[in-house]
């Protein structure tokens, strides 16, 4: 787990090494254990290292395969790197290190861009072929590891974080109206390849991009489950599905224990993280370090779920750590969390994850997290509504159920120059759901949520907040084989028992029933939900700042209406509308835009 960056020039001139160095330094928190920079002709690569696998200097990056003349940088972890190394040795390759980075170089040498099909893991990488001058960029199937791009007519820069590209300089920071429309429609999600900045894009998940020396490029999307009932599963009943899911999750959790340092678990006390702990205990893991965070109550809302996480910790005898955050710390922690965001994120748990990661990083370098289970196994309360219509009616039902607001509402919020002429967010959903596959209405919704909304909201949130403290988070529910299995699972088994039915049945084999059958919880941060005093002061300060006035993104009449009643204006999904608007402005100001 690390931070990579680089630059490729298309005019034959040498890259701006000072800019590449600035990008690398901005990612120091992602890789506090080492640094490196490499340049050859029109290409430069830089790397910040977090030592997880092969702690020696033989794992240093950028790494070069001198025989084949390939140099690369890599962020993430290839969980099956040991098996691949043995396979590659059998094919005649020799290794100098025990790192997964070297496995990537040799795998590319052996299989070309098809190497990604063999990787089990989370990754973003950049490889340079010395002879051809070609640059190859790749990203994992579920977009767990980020890769941001900033291109001009003569140059491409890339980095693991958007702020790193800003540190390099010369980025078009004007706002992208389509991305702002998505942000205000989808609970702050902006789908790849866009970001809210017109000059920054993201390499989509499950994509390999080959960039030629003249700047031309081609993309290959190498993975996408069909979300149909596969023939090999037609004779399976509920108990067989339960066992298949449990076996696949067990494998996913086991894979994510691969490390040369201890691995802990972020334990909320919900079904998903509790299952991870139970499976690790079942595998013989002892004295597993687990971590939970809670906040002071505000407005009658509980701010912690310690009663559940404590129960799981006792049940499996973990080395449990509890962090209680006072309300006054939320407002001060907010600025640090926003600084860590590669893109603006409004979910309250972003602050929780940032504060938790700060403490966890003092104890371990790697944790497993339950992120992704709700999208993969249909755990949210709105999925039954999405499943209740015909397949062709799903885009409209999805917009009614999921969107924060309809397109028409944006006209009274945004200045005219920032408002697209038509409902671009709705059109995105219609186009995505029109792609072949996705047998039922629920399949279409889960495909969109898993491969778009999940990637650019919860998954990004976990990466940004943990990596700001040099902490690697692994997400077994996004193991691609488990996702493929879940995609083929009959919708009624996922919707059963109030959602995640097949996963709950698996949980009953390992967990106390009160943990499985508890009401669904969320990561509560009451100080933000109820706009407690210091948070509201921060919001008002940002919206009244000279930068906000110059930007003029939102209509004054709309902002006046929100600030007159800070806690009353809600999106269709119940989020605080003022928080959504203010967070975007706070993020822009924090990053000097």
TrEMBL record:
E.C. code: 6.3.5.4
Swiss-Prot/TrEMBL catalytic activity: L-aspartate + L-glutamine + ATP + H2O = L-asparagine + L-glutamate + AMP + diphosphate + H(+)
Domain Glutamine amidotransferase type-2 intervals: 2-214
The protein's annotated pathway: Amino-acid biosynthesis; L-asparagine biosynthesis; L-asparagine from L-aspartate (L-Gln route): step 1/1
Top-rank lineage group of the source organism: Bacteria
Keywords: Amino-acid biosynthesis, Asparagine biosynthesis, ATP-binding, Glutamine amidotransferase, Nucleotide-binding
Key word Nucleotide-binding present: yes
Gene3D superfamilies in UniProt: Glutamine Phosphoribosylpyrophosphate, subunit 1, domain 1, HUPs
Keyword Plastid: no
Protein family according to the UniProt entry: Belongs to the asparagine synthetase family.
NCBIfam families named among the record's database cross-references: asn_synth_AEB, trio_amidotrans
The protein's name in its UniProt record: asparagine synthase (glutamine-hydrolyzing)
Higher taxonomy: Bacteria, Bacillati, Actinomycetota, Actinomycetes, Kitasatosporales
